[in-house]
Amino acid sequence: MSIEEAVFGAGCFWGVEEAFREVEGVVDTAVGYCGGATANPSYKDVCTGTTGHAEVVRVSFDTDKTTFDDLLDVFWNCHNPTMHNRQGPDVGSQYRSVIFFQSEDQEDSARATCDAVAHSGQYQDAIVTEISPACTFYMAEDYHQKHVQKNPQAGCSINQNR
After folding, report:
1. CA atoms of 141 and 48, how far apart (whole Å)
2. Residue 138: its H or E element
3. How far from chain centre, in Å, is Cα 72?
4. pLDDT, mean of each 10-residue run, the chain (162 residues)
5. Secondary structure tally for the chain: helices H, strands E
6. Which one from 12, 34, 114, 156 is the annotated catalytic residue?
């Protein structure tokens, strides 16, 4: 088994985590915060919109069973990548569309699929997804981890603007 990690932000991390958990070959997920300047931010801190962090999902996957490109397919299809700093009813920079690449290969794949989506005719508006180098991942509070699995009645809508 060869394990790699990928980090994606696509709006509220609850529903995004659930979308990735359903992929065969995903061995673990964790929700947290990336891309900001504040060390060890809390959910309350991130929600102020002043820390610069995005709500993200860290996906650990078995490369013998799935690929980064498979995960990119889930990413591009679970949210609207043309929405600037929002998804559905959630508004703020913490809900931005972002891929934090872990390697040059991940960066190349992220940029290639971004270009493909941009030229697919699927969207009239421009893709606003950020593609940035990996940064420190701060684990979100325990009650956010696997939230949809623990609270199916609460859920979290993703893909609302497609």
Report:
1. 16
2. strand 138-139
3. 10
4. 96 92 96 96 95 98 98 96 93 97 98 97 96 97 75 60 39
5. 5, 8
6. 12
| Nearest one of 125, 40, 31, 45 to 81, comparing CA atoms | 125
Residues in the chain: 162
78 among known catalytic residues = no
What is the side-by-side strand order in the sheet with 138-139? Answer: 130-133, 97-101, 3-10, 54-62, 26-34, 138-139
Contact 81, 115 (CB under 8 A): no
* CB-based burial, 15-45: b 16+ in 10 Å, e otherwise: bbbbbbeebebbeebbbbbbbbeeeebebeb
Going by DSSP bridges, is the β-strand pair 130-133/97-101 parallel, antiparallel, or unpaired? parallel
What's residue 149's pLDDT?
74
Say how many Å lie between the first and final Cα of the chain, rounded. 35
Q: How many Å apart are CA 150 and CA 30, to the nearest integer?
A: 14
Q: Which two tokens stand for residue 27?
A: 């061995």
Alpha-carbon span 100 to 121, nearest angstrom: 25
The torsion angles phi and psi of 38, rounded to 5 degrees, stand at: -85, 130
User: Mind listing the domains of the chain with CATH numbers?
Assistant: 3-150 (3.30.1060.10)
Rounded distance, CA 16 to CA 79, Å?
Answer: 8
Residue 20 in tokens: 């990735």
